[in-house]
């Protein structure tokens, strides 16, 4: 179980880093982010994370804010997984 939680935490970290990279390219492209191939690649990779966020958020949340909402949700999921990982490691006598 500890291995599964560690793996899930690593996936959440990877998705969060992809969203952070997408945000950084957005800031550095000065309004021309849609024509940037690196930004489009990040958008392709973060699509599986951002699409479910569209389903769970209310309609008044603008589509441009969905990556930020996804990053916020991933952050709290990472906190929960880290806590669970520490609890499991403590039960296994690793801490």
Average predicted local confidence, pLDDT: 94
Structural class: mainly alpha
Q: Helical amount among residues, as a percent range? A: over 70%
> Element order, helices and strands?
HHH
Give the biggest sheet: none
- Give the number of helices: 3
The whole-angstrom Rg is 16 Å
Residue stretches low in confidence (pLDDT < 50, at least 5 long) are none
State the end-to-end distance.
16 Å
Strand content: under 5%
- The general outline is elongated
Number of strands: 0
- How many domains, in number, for the residues? 1
Secondary structure elements and pairings:
Elements: H1 2-28, H2 37-56, H3 66-91
Helix pairs in contact: 1-2, 1-3, 2-3
Task: Kindly describe this structure.
- This protein has one domain (2-91).
- It is mostly helical.
- It has helices at residues 2-28, 37-56, 66-91.
- Helix 1 (2-28) crosses helix 2, helix 1 (2-28) runs antiparallel to helix 3 (66-91) and helix 2 crosses helix 3 (66-91).
- The mean pLDDT is 94.
- The protein has three helices and no strands.
- The two termini are 16 Å apart.
């Amino acid at each position: 179980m500890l291995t599964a939680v560690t793996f899930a935490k690593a996936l959440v970290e990877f998705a969060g880093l992809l969203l952070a990279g997408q945000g950084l390219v957005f800031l550095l492209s000065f309004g021309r982010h849609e024509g940037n191939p690196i930004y489009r690649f990040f958008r392709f990779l973060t699509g599986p994370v951002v699409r479910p966020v569209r389903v769970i958020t209310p309609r008044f949340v603008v589509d441009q804010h969905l990556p930020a909402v996804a990053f916020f949700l991933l952050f709290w999921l990472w906190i929960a997984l880290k806590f669970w990982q520490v609890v499991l490691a403590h039960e296994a006598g690793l801490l």
